[in-house]
Structures are given as C-alpha cells and as structure tokens.
Amino acid sequence: MMTFRRKYEERFFRALSFLFTAIIVFVLVQIIWTVVKKGFPSLSWQMITQEPKGGFYFGKDGGILNAIAGSFYLAVCSTILAFVISLPVALFMNIYLIRYQRLLIGIRFFLDVLWGVPSIVYGAFGFTLLMYLGYKNSLGAGIITVAAMITPIMIRAMDEVLKTIPIGLQEASYALGSTKTETAYKVFFREALPGFATAILLAFGRGIGDAASVLFTAGYTDHIPHGFSEPTATLPLAIFFQLSSPIEEVQNRAYAAAVILTVIVLVLSVSARLIKMKK
Amino acid sequence: MSTQIETLLKSNLTTTVVHNNIPVVEIDKVNVYSKGHHILKNVSTIIPKNKITVLLGPSGCGKTTLLKCLNRLTDLYPDLKVSGSIRIDGDNIFDAHKDITAIRQKMGLLLQRPYPLPMSIYDNIAYGLKLKGIRNKKIISAKVEKHLKEVALWDEVKDRLKTSAQRLSIGQQQRLCLARGLAVEPEIILADEPSSALDPISSRVIEEEFIKLKSGYTIILVTHILRQAKRLADNVIFMYYGEIIESGPAQQVFENPQSEILKEYLRVGH
Ligand SMILES: Nc1ncnc2c1ncn2[C@@H]1O[C@H](COP(=O)(O)OP(=O)(O)OP(=O)(O)O)[C@@H](O)[C@H]1O
Ligand SMILES: [Mg+2]
C-alpha cells in the first residue's frame, strides 16, 4: 500500500532536487556569462599592461595593471605570511596535541568560527589597528589583514590533510627514534605536501578575491606600489570603484577586472581540485 | 612414574635455562586499559637476551599492544592507560625522566602493516642513520645496500633507489621496513607478523635472517603461523584475552602445553 505513496514521494523529491540544481547551474552560468560578455571585449593588451591614465575614476585611457599587480603582490605576500603561521600551528595540533582530543575539538571549532567571520570584520579590525598605530592605508596593512583572514582557512585546510595521515606512519617515525619535531617536519610535512598545495591555493583564491578586507586597509591608487608602506589597488576594488563611474570606458575596466579575477579564481579552484584528485 | 620424573626434570631444566639467560626486557605487572576495556591484564614476563621469543595468541588478544608498550607508542593514544613497569637493560621505560627517543632507538619495530616514510627507498633507510648522527655518505650508501640485501630486496630495487618507497608492493614495503629497522642497529627487534604479506620464498629468507640475527639481537616476534613459530622460537609466550596463559622455552610449550586453550590452539593451528 505504501508503495504508491513512496513512489510519489520519490518522484516529487527527485524533481525538486533536479529543479534546484538546474536553477543553481543556470544562475552560475548567467553570472559567468555576463562577466565574460561585458568584460571580454574590453580585454586588450593595453588593459593589462597599463596603469589608468588621468585617474582611475575619470580617465578614459589606460588599463588595470595597477590592480593586477597590486592584487598579485597582496595575495602572494599574505599567502606566504599565512603559510608561515599556519604550518607550525597545523603540525602542532596534529603532533603535539594528538593526546588532547577535547582541546583539539575546541581549537577546530574556534578556527571554523574565524573562517566564518565576514571579511569586513577583518577589514574593520585592520583599520582599527592602523588607526591605533598611526599608519595609513598601505600594501603592508592590506597584507596583514588578508593574512589574518586567510590564516584560519589555511590552518583548517592543512589540519584536514594532516588528520588523514594514518597513525601508523607516526608510530613508524617514532619507532625509528625521531623526536616530535622531526616527525612533524620530516615525515608529516612531506606526506602532506600535495594536500598542503590545495590548502595554499584555497587560501590564495580567497585572499585575491576579497574586497571588504582591503577596503579600509590597502587603499586604492593609480600606481603600482613600490613598497609596503604605499597604498595599492586591487582587482576586487577595481571592480567596485570603476563600476560606479558614469564613464563607459571606466566601467569597461571594471568588467575587464571582473573577467581576470573570475578566471584566476576558476583556475585556482580547478588546480586545487586536480591536485586533490591526483593524490 | 617415569613421565613424572621427566616433567620434573624438564621443569628443572627450564628454570636453569631461564636463569642462565640475561634478561634484557623485564615486564612487570603491565596493565593497559582503554575506556573500561582491559586490554592487557597484569602481564609479567621476561624476555631473554639473544633469543627469539615468539608471541602467540588469537587475534585481538593484545600482542600488538604489548609490543607497543615496549617502546611506549601507547603514548600516542589518549584512550590507553598504561601501568606497571617495563625494564630494558634495567631502566624502567615508564620513568618520566627517561629519554624516550633513545629507548626507541634501542628497538627496531616492524609494524603489522608496513608504513614507508614519504621519501625515496634510499632515504627510508638513510633516515634512521641520519638521526643517529651518521653523516658520511659512503657509510650511509654502504649500509643501505647491506641492509637491503639482508632482507632480499636489493635486486628488486637497486635501479630505483631514488623513487618513492610508497610505490613498492606491500610485501616489498614490509621488507623495506625491516631493513629500515635493522639499519639503526637496535638491540631488540620487535616484529609484528613480519611475513604476513610475503610469498613463501621471501618469507623463508626473512626467517633465515632472523635466525642469523639472533646472535646479536634479541628478537620478539608475533606470528600466526604455527609452523613458523616452531621453526624460529627459542622461547614462547602464549596470550589469550590480554593475559599470558603460558610461557617458557619453545620445546616445553609446544610439546607439553598445560592449559586447555593452548592445547586447542596448537591442535587447530596444526
Ligand atoms: N588504541 C586503542 N584504543 C582502544 N582499544 C585498542 C587500541 N589498540 C588496541 N585496542 C584493543 O585491544 C585489543 C588487543 O588489540 P591488539 O592489536 O593488541 O591485538 P593483537 O593480538 O595484535 O591482534 P591481531 O593478531 O589481530 O593483530 C583489541 O580488542 C583492540 O580492540
Ligand atoms: Mg596485532
């Protein structure tokens, strides 16, 4: 008797799942399509090799090299900084704290909360810190803020990789007379390296795409920064500022920046996935 | 009457044999608990020097746990509560002040499942040597070759020493792990089913290696193969549900088992 009802249920929920999946795919394709359609025609050699001329908001000529270079500096440096902090923490959690499972659960929860904190909060924090220290908007401040934002992500991503290492490998290492530090940096590090690459790409992608964390901290300028104390343009803010300009050429620069950013993030996610699959 | 005398004589012999042996490992009232589960129950025994001691017992009786106690790998498991004392060359390894890495270097442990380090075949063996402070490349190379030959792996891997050890077959990994353990020249070899993934020929090679090794090493071997136990054992420990039921010289244990469980085990295992 119940077969009729269950069949009906099954069909209904399958149709529902299909519908929502289709909607999501449709929206995603629309977003990418809009960005590409608007941005692709504006992509030119000049766009990616020149700084904006006559001010990024009013000048019709030039490109977005300032934002490309700025974002690149910012994301690379903050990823390196985050890595230097994350690596010892993630190894410490999985080697030294392995006996303290309760504590580990607490730390992981705390990091997950940090992961979920909106980036504008990090931006506000970075801004407060700047004010307090009496510095102005700069590449360095942006790097520190973005690093603070992506460090919990990187630690947790590395932690997930380290967690999957069988305890037998740890036993084998100790049995040979390794200390904990040797086990961490000579055995675990190597074992986890492919997984770490994924963690790094993930954090890099998050760092390069985020607008809110750099809004109050990195500033914006027409030029490529020549030091950590100079302000810098970034791709997300290049979109944000230039899209609101009434001048069409300036808007086109925003779309070009959007295309570049989308492509970078897509490439990063795909490579992260590929590395994971290869492992 | 005569059989009684025989048993008496034998048991007498046993005691003298044990007394003549210098104990390297003295296990005294070791208990291991895991969340209310009593894994090792008041285990006390002596492992004589330069002999092969075979640990026998059904799956899950605590053989691996006992081996892990010996080099304190139990430290890694938050659930395990260990008490009692284990003396190696007179030093209690549970003493909090003891340098655990030095104790572990005295023992080569071959785990039940092989875990090659995430590096090349060559470096897997060189790793332990470097930890011991050996830096000379020539010495390291010579040792790598020597120990790979010892475990009959050299011919299979000599052309790809620099490739990842994790790509070897399980049986090759098992032999590599044995070579890695031997390379650091421990005093005691703890081997947990060293030939479980090996073909009969490599398995025989390893057995012969153990017999050769026992003049210089003390060997504790876990095996489920009764024939292998009989071929190798000088001394046997039979465990059941976390307890040592019987232990003593191989001949006595195999030919004159006392408990019903061991008799059953030997009969079925034959
Ligand atoms: N880390 C641990 N935490 C909790 N229980 C454990 C742990 N390690 C082992 N045990 C339990 O202790 C008992 C003995 O396990 P052990 O691995 O020592 O058996 P074994 O004699 O080596 O068996 P086998 O012949 O199958 O290898 C088992 O019941 C197992 O579930
Ligand atoms: Mg076992």
Write up what this structure looks like:
- The complex is a heterodimer of chains A (279) and B (270).
- Chain A has 11 helices and no strands.
- With 279 residues, chain A is mainly α.
- Chain A has 2 domains: 2-42; 46-278, MetI-like fold.
- The longest helix of chain A is centred in the N-terminal third of the chain and has 38 residues, at 2-39.
- Chain A is globular, with a radius of gyration of 23 Å.
- The mean pLDDT of chain A is 90.
- Chain B has 270 residues and is an alpha/beta fold.
- Chain B has one domain (2-106, 186-269): P-loop containing nucleotide triphosphate hydrolases (Rossmann fold, 3-Layer(aba) Sandwich), CATH 3.40.50.
- In chain B, β7 (188-192), α8 (200-213) and β8 (218-222) form a beta-alpha-beta unit.
- In chain B, α4 packs across α5.
- Mean pLDDT of chain B is 85; it is low at 5-20.
- Classes of the chains: A mainly alpha (279), B alpha/beta (270).
- Chain A binds chain B through residues 98-101, 166-179, 182, 186-187, 190-191, 193, and chain B through 68, 71, 73, 75-78, 101-102, 104-105, 107-109, 111, 113, 115-119, 127-128, 131-132, 177, 180-181, 184.
- The complex binds adenosine-5'-triphosphate and magnesium ion (MG).
- Residues 63-64, 112, 192 of chain B line the site of magnesium ion.
- Chain A: It is a multi-pass membrane protein.
- Chain A: One of its GO terms (molecular function) is phosphate transmembrane transporter activity.
- Chain A: One of its GO terms (biological process) is phosphate ion transmembrane transport.
- Chain A: Belongs to the binding-protein-dependent transport system permease family. CysTW subfamily.
